UniProtKB/TrEMBL annotation, chain A:
Organism: Zingiber officinale
Database matches in Pfam families: IBH1_N (PF26576)
Alphabetical keyword list: Transcription, Transcription regulation
Cell wall biogenesis/degradation found in the keyword field: no
Domain IBH1-like N-terminal residues, every copy: 28-82
A Gene Ontology BP annotation from the UniProt entry: regulation of DNA-templated transcription
Protein name from the UniProt record: IBH1-like N-terminal domain-containing protein
Keyword NAD on entry: no
Automatic annotation (TrEMBL), chain B:
GO molecular function, one term: protein dimerization activity
Pfam family, one: bHLH_ILI
Boundaries of every BHLH domain copy: 1-52
One GO BP: regulation of growth
Protein's name according to its UniProt entry: BHLH domain-containing protein
Species annotation: Zingiber officinale
Keyword Lyase among UniProt keywords: no
Domain of life of the native organism: Eukaryota
Keywords assigned: Transcription, Transcription regulation
Length: 153, 86
């Protein structure tokens, strides 16, 4: 099992991914939105479209973060494996490598919330959670900007 | 927390905890002035992630509703321009 040294942890938390800049994520997401729009606009119910948009949002977020993050890899695996299903279905395989200490209730809750968080060691989990929170917040700001711009047209 | 990984020190965990705390929204930081305990931080992070998930769902619904009113490429071009300017 590959264990990174603390120095690696610190540098990876500080250095930004060059792919994950706001215009890049925005373009990727807008392209995905136009695909959703073109794929049968009139026939779909708004809730079906909303699910497609949500899936696109998580996919773009994970794709922009790149493969070096466990959460982005886990998200992309989930999305590509089951198109059309719910995104946050709990999977039995998460508990296969449960940490020996058991972990308290809060740690277990965090592992459920962060994609791919089931099998990591604690230090790694905190690091992945921090990156996931950062990218999620950026995605939310991006979608809010789009909604605001589209509402004022 | 002991016994989980012999090579990980408390100092490392503390540094990760303060980095995570810095990412939480401002009102959460104001409520918990100074250093949070690890369990408080986990709790805040969990509730923050859940609220972000809810916001993504909500914004997806709104975008889906707006898609019916957006018709041609020009609104999107305007949005792209606006995003690239900021």
């Amino acid at each position: 099992m590959y264990r990174r040294s603390f120095k690696d942890t610190r540098s990876s938390l500080g250095s930004p991914n060059p792919n994950f800049s706001k215009p890049m994520v925005a373009l990727r997401f807008l392209r995905a939105l136009s695909l959703v729009r073109r794929s049968g606009l009139g026939a779909c119910s708004p809730s079906y479209r909303a699910r497609g948009i949500r899936r696109a949002a998580y996919a773009c977020m994970a794709a922009s973060a790149g493969p070096r993050r466990a959460w982005s890899r886990a998200l992309l695996r989930k999305i590509r494996r089951r198109p059309g299903r719910g995104l946050r279905r709990p999977r039995a395989v998460i508990w296969r490598h449960r940490p020996v200490g058991g972990g308290d209730r809060l740690e277990v809750a965090l592992r459920r919330l962060v994609p791919g968080g089931g099998c990591m060691e604690y230090c790694r989990l905190l690091e992945e959670a921090a990156d996931y929170v950062k990218c999620l917040a950026m995605q939310v700001r991006l979608m809010q900007t789009i909604v605001d711009s589209a509402s004022h047209v | 927390m002991s016994g989980r990984g012999r090579r990980i020190t408390d100092e490392e965990i503390n540094e990760l905890i303060s980095k995570l705390q810095a990412l939480l929204p401002a009102e959460s930081r104001r409520r918990n002035a100074g250093r949070m305990s690890a369990s408080k931080l986990l709790k805040e992070t969990c509730s923050y992630i859940k609220s972000l998930h809810r916001e993504v769902d909500d914004l997806s619904d709104r975008l889906a509703g707006l898609m019916t009113t957006m018709d041609s490429n020009s609104p999107q071009a305007e949005i792209i321009r606006g995003l690239l300017r900021s």
